[in-house]
Write the structure tokens for this entry.
Amino acid sequence: MPIDIDIAKVARLARLGLSEEELVAYGSQLEGILEHAARVQALPTEGVEPTAHPLPMVNAHRSDEIEPTLDREEVLAQAPDHVDGFFRVPAFLEDE
Amino acid sequence: MSDPADFTIAEAATALRSEDLTALELLAAVRRRAAMTEANIHAYLTIDVDGAEASARAADDAFANGEDRGPLQGIPIALKDNMVTRGLETTASSQILAGWHPPYDATVVTRLRDGGAVIVGKTNLDEFAMGSSTENSAYGTSRNPWDPERVPGGSSGGSAAAVAVGSALAALGSDTGGSVRQPASLCGVVGMKPTYGLVSRYGLIAFASSLDQIGPITRSVADALAVLQGISGHDPEDATSYRGELPDFGSQFDRGVEGLKIGVVSELSGEGTEPAVAAGFSTMLQRLEGAGAEIKELSLPSTAYALSAYYLIAPAECSANLARFDGVRFGLRLDGETVEEMMGATRAAGFGPEVIRRILLGTYALSAGYYDAFYGQAQKVRTLVIDDFKQAYEQADVLVTPTSPTTAFKVGERTGDPLAMYLSDLCTIPSNLSGDPGISVPTGVDDAGLPIGFQVLAPALAEPLMFRVAKVVEDLAGFDLKPALASSEGAAE
């Protein structure tokens, strides 16, 4: 299967603001790696169930008890920008 | 007395209890070693001078008061810098987390502290644990103590180098595709990946959540067992943590291998294995046979596809996990007119090339139109790998392979070719896909004096059997060499 990547679209989905040159370079590296990875397609897997997780686990619940949470000031002190107890980001509602 | 920096945990534990040695003296010995070697080896990103001293003093006070919290009390241990430590800078070797002081401790950190361990500092790794050499660190490459021109392996390269050179008695690493076992092999120390779920991942900065597992790097098999006992067990903070009863890890220790069936995986010990590694491997097989084990050659055909499946599954999970580094709550932020521009600029500047490569790869493999052909297919191959292991364990008690197809390679030798780098983990990746435990034990050196590792794999939760065989391998190998750099001669007191 030939590998065809719209690398600009993939970068936008991943929120990576790459330059044109970087897109070209990553695009060709990815094609090489994907050609190797595409070998998985050579193995017949009809009727094989996919495995997402090595342990056969169902929902893991814990008891609903009030416990101490992270200290708000300590958390916010590590944020790039914050105001009035909230994280602050550039306006995004006017985005489109 | 020999230099306490070269002690095993067991030796140090005895000395600490016989009052020949205090925890502060032991820490000082390890610090002297770090002072002598860090300029060459660069195992550490951060050394916690005050915190370690306070812990060592507390351990000495405990000994003086007759309090004994077990074999790790007073032992200097290093942590890979992808495990969060409250108030102590944690970067995962990434620019995007430069200067980050986490607001909480990882569960393994809490457990080590509860056991009285002394946390020396945070060790270097490939950025976000993505790599096999530490060359992907944003803060410089660690060097192999056996030859500083060569890599220590990775991604837990700093942890393995520190244990090999004596700037910690033991260390924790994390193993997603071999990142504990491969560097342990390249540095001539023991490295162990537990069954998935035995050790809490809470506070381990996630790379690929269904594969990541924290494990010990030590100077002996018995030490690995002691550290695992100290850090394992159910944790309500990690929903994937194992809820059943823990195996008694040491219950089969010293029972030998007589009558055990040891399977050699033909796909993982043939083509691409360096002659010296292959020779060391077959010598150990003969010795195991001499010790009464039955050696059987086995085929696990799907393991030939495991590497390909891994390089779809791990990037897919990484692309989701690393979405949290977006310039909002912690770490780096670059300016942007809009939120999307801010995030795009922050992430492109904060992540190194290998991390960007894997995020792009994972995003592509998960994207509409390609999901079934790549990620979906890789998950089915994962099922086949698990089935192959199950069948193999019907014919053999444990499986063995070389840990790494090669000994330590030169700095820069593989950086231009991501695929060649990925092949370093050929023998270790299958057990991450299956979730089973594995351990690397040093058995000798090649002609250039570089260590060779021998890997023992066992079924899930069969750590007692795995440690039993690993102990025999260790005894048969009698590996007692140390790198010439592991010396504190001439250090200032």
Q: What stands out?
A: The two ends of chain A are 37 Å apart (CA to CA). Strands of chain A lie at 82-83, 86-87. The longest helix of chain A spans residues 20-37.
